[in-house]
Design brief:
The complex is a heterodimer of chains A (280) and B (275). Chain A has 280 residues and is mainly α. Chain A has helices spanning 4-36, 47-54, 56-87, 93-101, 108-119, 124-130, 143-168, 171-179, 184-195, 197-212, 216-220, 229-239, 243-263; one strand at residues 277-279. Chain A starts with a helix and ends with a strand. Classes of the chains: A mainly alpha (280), B mainly alpha (275). At the A-B interface, α1, α3, α4, α5 and α7 of A face α1, α3, α4, α5 and α6 of B. β1 (277-279) of chain A pairs antiparallel with β1 (265-267) of chain B, so a sheet runs across the interface.
Chain lengths: 280, 275
């Protein structure tokens, strides 16, 4: 069916694109899987998985990572849902939403670095609570500081999808619910909340998966007290140089990611974490 | 009712303050004449003087922008080719397979991308440095370009291409005179997103950077591990300015090209996954 000129054209487009697909999408994933299934000498083995599943340390680390991701997701959700709801009722809501998004454009390292200054032993927060006669606390390098900073960074990614799904709800549904005698609370619970669920799911997906793979914050803010899957991978690849086990944890992380995506799947919409969409 | 709104406003204001507090904190302390991020000792520009005298940092800034510029240019070209290829596919299933493959790097955690690219470069016997960082940045920017260009192609009037063909245009003329001008807003937006991705990336670069070469994010990371230095604050104030300019440019582009709002969507978040 294809004419010769169309074939030529398609080939011209396909060559650079397929080189990228093969070299940087397919090959790295296969290599990662391959590494996890071999010994340092290149022989096939399941030993890495046996080490992973046989060791209490690794399993505890994985459980901890999931638990902290869950906490980060829960905290951001509790903070973000009311914010998205309130923002949606403002007059200039696109402008306010832009203000929420703006901090995400600022280099992540810098935001984290700011918290080192804020939370350090003689830092601003300690000076502030000192005014109330509280002795300086060790705020940095604790589980709490890790949760705080992680939640701070993730909040915009949770607000955006929820805001979008709230903005899509037909306002007449709310009016109808009022007319039929529902009070504000009932309207929220029976109409708004169920209809905004796709946004909530997209938000959970956008926060939970990256939280599993955080590694920079765990080092700079958490002081290595919290070890996430991401930290473990980084440690194995760049510090202990045990790539086989690092790849094994990588495969586990990919599996965790796929499970999360299936659980929070939405039939209508696909929302990538890296991109947000504004509905006009 | 009005009471509810009032509590709501307080909550919103409080959260906005929290959201911006760390950023302004950094910027304000860059003007501190003291050397630490606590205890204001008076206004001074000395950290900016230090910053501009620090040749290592300046070199890294140049490197970072060079990588961002080159990677986004090349990613725009390859990504546009990919979008054109996917657009021209007739088979729905094949199209979806290509789209899913395209999106793999968008959803993968940065640690996985970084680790697997490190394996790739090592297996290929590629030494780590400028080229490996550049190649990685091109690689993770391509899918976003494809996603920005595809909607433009879908909006394009097909009879334009047919008319060009009837009038005797060859493939190259059709591409450069008809298709590219129509989809150029998409390519520009893709280029721009790729640029910010590259500037912001930490995790992937951290894995493939090797010893000699460094970008800003990696440099800030290694300095922050050693403790606070207000030179970084000065740097962050400058970068805040750059981000602000980028946001404004981006919104200028997207509102100019956003006249045709059938899609009803605009892109707003840059890559911030690299944690």
């Amino acid at each position: 069916m294809m004419t010769k000129s169309k074939r030529q054209r398609q080939l011209f487009y396909l060559i650079p694109y397929s080189i990228w697909l093969i070299l940087f999408v397919v090959a790295p994933l296969i290599l990662l899987l391959f590494q996890s299934l071999t010994t340092p000498n290149g022989h096939f083995t399941l030993k890495n998985y046996a080490t992973y599943f046989g060791s209490g340390t690794y399993l505890r680390m994985t459980f901890n990572s999931v638990w902290y991701s869950f906490l980060i997701t829960a905290i951001t959700l509790v903070i973000s849902y009311p914010m998205a709801y309130l923002l949606n009722q403002l007059k200039q809501k696109q402008f306010w939403l832009l203000l929420i998004i703006l901090p995400t454009w600022i280099n992540l390292l810098l935001k984290t670095y700011a918290f080192i200054g804020l939370l350090s032993k003689s830092g601003t927060v300690n000076n502030f609570i000192g005014l109330f006669g509280i002795v300086p606390q060790q705020l940095l390098f604790s589980d709490w500081s890790f949760l705080l900073v992680a939640a701070y960074i993730e909040i915009p990614f949770m607000i955006l999808p929820i805001f979008n799904s709230l903005a899509e709800i037909n306002p007449r549904l709310e009016q109808a619910s009022r007319d039929l005698g529902a009070n504000k609370w009932q309207t929220l619970k029976r109409i708004i909340l169920p209809l905004s669920m796709p946004g909530v799911k997209a938000g959970i997906q956008a926060v939970f998966i990256p939280s599993l793979s955080l590694f920079m914050i765990t080092r700079l803010i958490g002081g290595n007290r919290v070890i996430t899957l991401g930290t473990a991978i980084e440690e194995h690849f760049l510090v202990t140089q045990n790539w086989q086990l690092g790849s094994t944890i990588g495969v586990i992380l990919i599996v965790a990611m796929v499970i999360t995506m299936i659980l929070t799947r939405d039939r209508i919409r696909r929302t990538g974490r890296k991109r947000g969409t504004l509905h006009e | 009712m009005s009471k509810n709104v009032k509590w709501g406003n307080i909550y919103l204001w409080f959260m906005f303050v929290i959201l911006y507090l760390p950023i302004f904190f950094l910027v304000i302390y860059s003007f501190n004449s003291g050397d630490v991020m606590q205890g204001w000792e008076g206004f001074s520009l000395k950290h900016y003087v230090e910053l501009f005298a620090d040749t290592r940092i300046l070199e890294i800034v140049v490197n970072t922008f060079l990588v961002a510029l080159l990677s986004s240019l090349l990613a725009s070209m390859i990504g546009t080719a990919g979008a054109l290829y996917i657009y021209n596919l007739n088979h729905e299933l094949v199209k979806n397979v290509f789209l899913s493959l395209n999106n793999i790097l968008l959803v993968s955690p940065d640690v996985i991308i970084g680790a697997s690219f490190l394996i790739l470069f090592t297996v290929m016997g590629f030494s780590l440095g400028f080229t490996s960082v550049l190649l990685s940045h091109i690689a993770f920017s391509i899918p976003i370009v494809v996603l920005m260009v595809l909607p433009r192609l879908q909006e394009m009037n097909r009879s334009l291409v047919a008319a060009a063909k009837d009038l005797g245009a060859n493939n190259w003329q059709m591409l450069t005179r008809v298709i590219l001008p129509v989809i150029s807003p998409g390519i520009l937006a893709g280029f721009f997103m790729a640029f910010t991705y590259s500037l912001d990336d930490f995790a992937v670069t951290f894995f493939v950077t090797g010893n000699g070469f460094s970008t800003l994010s990696v440099e800030i990371y290694s300095r922050a591990r050693q403790g606070v230095s207000l030179e970084i604050n000065a740097l962050s104030a400058m970068m805040f300015l750059v981000s602000l300019i980028l946001v404004l440019v981006y919104y200028a582009i997207s509102s100019r090209s956003g006249r045709n709002k059938k899609q009803g969507t605009r892109l707003v978040l840059p890559a911030s996954e690299g944690l």
